[in-house]
Amino acid sequence: MADFYQNGIITNLHNLVDRSTEELERELSSFSRLRPMSLVLPSLYSELQGPALSNIIDQVAEVPYLNEIVIGLDRSDEAQYRHAREFFARLPQHHRILWNDGPRLRQLDALLQQEGLAPKEMGKGRNVWYCYGYVLASGRAEAVALHDCDIVTYDRSLLARLIYPVANPSFNYEFAKGYYARIAGQQMNGRVSRLLVTPLLRALKKTYGALDFLEYLDSFRYPLSGEFSMRADVLNDIRIPSDWGLEIGVLSEMKRNYSTNRLCQVDIADCYDHKHQPLSADDHARGLSKMSTDICKAIFRKLATQGEVFTTEAFRTIKATYFRIALDFIETYYNDARMNGLTLDRHSEEKAVELFAENIMRAGEHFLANPMETPFIPSWNRVISAVPDILDKLYQAVEADNAE
Asked: Which InterPro entries would you find in this protein's record (predicted)?
């Protein structure tokens, strides 16, 4: 149960009274006549066999207000795609699967590669980008929600609360970011947000001052959540990062394109748990090690576009400042966990902080060595200007795959 406090420069929409899901859904069904809604589910094939997705689909099947469900399916061969068709067939709503590894979408991707417009690496960012393109192509939605497919504590109230701010015709929000407490199994989770993002933002403030972008990011209660919703017109201009910087990149794009009074964050769950990435201290290309490096690069790149200058000495200062702030945060989180009867391993927390500090320097060195790197996938507006019939081609490819 949240309080009503408004922190930072982004509107907080709290869960103050535990309003029933049925009441929210009745209101959303009324909104859907004026503002039809779509849900995007980016999924790996392996998640069909995991502990979360079957429950998610059973829950979503009960949702009365969705006009469309778009499922992006990654890492599947033909037999697995056919199994996915059967798996998602229980959805009574109009739904389509994007078989990203299928020959039709591969051919479309090859066409975009010839124009230098295709996503450069596989992953969630690429999956989401193609799903958003299909939403634009189908024209069935004016409000779009996205959430992950590995939420083991999923309840359909999460979706209702997530999409409500952009679905309500009397609200002016273009974008809503979901937040929640990362508590599950009597443990405090969310290490990358708690131990990297928040202390790094505070360290950058100490080093560069209270910049508007830093205040903006620091206003989000859970900036790395994979759950957000937006008006469909947002999809035309947004540039999606293809790496682990996706969430930070989306927030950066919203700040670039819209006034902050058109953005909000909404409390969507009392309890939230999903699969946990390993720390991967010995392999910087995997797990939280790669995630933390990509997130740092995303933040540094954004600040550089606003005229901030980075040097090796500056990154050393940022790292040292971050390290002290992060260690202080561990004490704060330990006390908070202890008071609430939760467990928190100080040793593993400090190991994570040490890795994140190392990766701040690694990200900084990569940034300085690759000044021309452009990890963003082009906006759909740019793609359409280069290939005017691209949305028609995407729509026809998906429809053909789903018709077979």
From this structure: Nucleotide-diphossugar_trans (IPR029044)
